[in-house]
Amino acid sequence: MKSLAVLIVALSAFAQDRVNPDSLIVQDFEKRVAGYVSLQKSLAKGLPSTKPTDEPQIILDRQRDLAGRIRAARRQARQGAIFSPEISKEFHRLLGFAREGQNDAHIKKSLERAEPVFLRLHVNDAYPAGIPLQSTPPTILMNLPLLPPDLEYRIAGHALVLRDATANIVVDLIPDALP
């Protein structure tokens, strides 16, 4: 029995040495995203529900109130709060995979067809109401970690933006993610 325990400990140590460091970085990103979503959900308590309504002002008021609460709770948040330097480096690598071969031309065409968005965004900024939300090409999305329903990736100029769609707020961004 004692030899079995020693074997399990040895195998566990061996497995830890063999962990893919890139997967640990993605796990860190997912943990940061989960922390943000948990904060957002706790701050949404007490606000009017998101039931369907014919009154757009009710939706806009809730969005504004939630964004205000998030800004207050994350007033110290800066670029890199979610996209740490290590995570940004990994996203650059993943975006490089997305742009390999003919995919690069398809991505460029997709971004050219959409109305280009060149904004200078910052963490906790509201995404401007009059500016289109440029879609993120599927080839890029397939290479990035999945996000919870309230969050989305957006492209603004050369930046990859992590946007809270419920609060219409910039959670974080990588300014030079795309050439």
Please tell me about this protein's structure.
- α2 packs across α3.
- The radius of gyration is 20 Å and the shape is globular.
- By secondary structure, it is mainly alpha-helical.
- The longest helix has 24 residues.
- A hairpin with a 4-residue loop joins β2 and β3.
- Helix content is 49%, strand content 10%.
- It contains 6 helices and 3 strands, in the order ααααααβββ.
- The model has no long low-confidence stretch (mean pLDDT 83).
- A 3-stranded antiparallel β-sheet has the order 1-2-3, with no helix packed on it.
How are the elements arranged and paired?
Layout: H1 2-17, H2 21-44, H3 56-73, H4 85-98, H5 103-113, H6 138-141, E1 151-156, E2 159-164, E3 169-174
Antiparallel strand pairs: 1-2, 2-3
Helix pairs in contact: 2-3
How would you describe this structure in keywords?
mainly alpha, three-stranded antiparallel sheet, 10% strand, globular
The quaternary state of the protein chains shown equals single chain
Strand content: 5-15%
* Strand element count: 3
Helices, by number, come to 6
Morphology call: globular
Put the structure in a nutshell.
With 179 residues, this protein is mainly α.
